[in-house]
Amino acid sequence: METRKSPTEDENAVVTRIIGKHRTRKGPLLPILSDIQKEIGYVSESAMVKIAEALDIPASKVYGAVTFYSLYATAPKGKNVIRVCESAPCHVEGAQGIVEALERTLGIKMGETTPDGVFSLEFTSCIGVCGVAPAIMINDRVYGNLTPGMIPQILAACRATA
Ligand code: FES
Fold first, then answer.
1. Strands across the sheet containing 136-138
2. What percent of the chain clears pLDDT 70, i.e. is strictly above it?
3. Cβ neighbours of residue 88 under 8 Å, at least 6 residues apart?
4. How many domains are contained in the chain?
5. Which atom of ligand 1 is nearest the CA belonging to 90?
6. Which domain holds residue 107?
7. CB within 6 Å of ligand 1 — which residues?
8. Are residues 57 and 104 in the same domain?
């Protein structure tokens, strides 16, 4: 049975527990990173240093793995994660205009999170709704047939429920 983070367990203790769970197995780095991402939501710099010390490997190796795999975040993400499809059909149908509208409306760049922690912006590959390109996902919800003019209203609706 999977052990879940308890409300009193701080991030440092979570990292220590996860390292202890995997350190003796073969190839412990990715399972450790995966569990930390799942439980905390990101892998902080201090967690990377702790992992490197525990596994006796260079911190650069841990950092390299975290930044190579897009499923790992290095900072907390916003409450609403906006994923913009950058695969060819969406690109052809105007994804760049959607990106610009999102960045302009939120005042952040792709890969960033708004200072209030409400929105994060990321790219993704095809989300399987190419028939309604250009498309984005906000958390689990898909928005398709988008135009830049639709973005402020969509974001306002998300913010209202944040
Ligand atoms: S290419 Fe964007 S949803 Fe498939």
1. 119-124, 80-85, 136-138, 141-143
2. 94
3. none
4. 2
5. 2
6. 80-161
7. 85, 87, 89-90, 126-130, 133, 135
8. no
Which atom of ligand 1 has the smallest separation from the CA of 132? 3
* Other beta carbons within 10 Å of 133: 22
Q: What angle do CA 39, 158, 90 make, to 5 degrees?
A: 85
The answer to whether the bond into 134 is cis (omega within 30° of 0) is yes
Same domain? For 92 and 139 the reply is yes
- Residue 63 and residue 89 share a domain: no
pTM of the model: 0.71
Q: CATH number of the domain that 109 lies in? A: 3.40.30.10
How far apart are the CA of 136 and the centre of ligand 1, in A? 9
Instruction: Please report the pLDDT score of residue 2 as a whole number.
Output: 43
Ligand 1 geometric centre to CA of 79 (Å) = 23
84, 98, 124, 130: which to mutate for ligand 1, most atoms within 8 A of CB? 130
Condensed to tens digits (0 to 9), the pLDDT of residues 70-111 reads 778 888 889 999 999 999 999 999 999 999 999 999 999 998
Output the CA 24–ligand 1 centroid distance in Å.
41
Better-scored residue on pLDDT, 3 or 122: 122
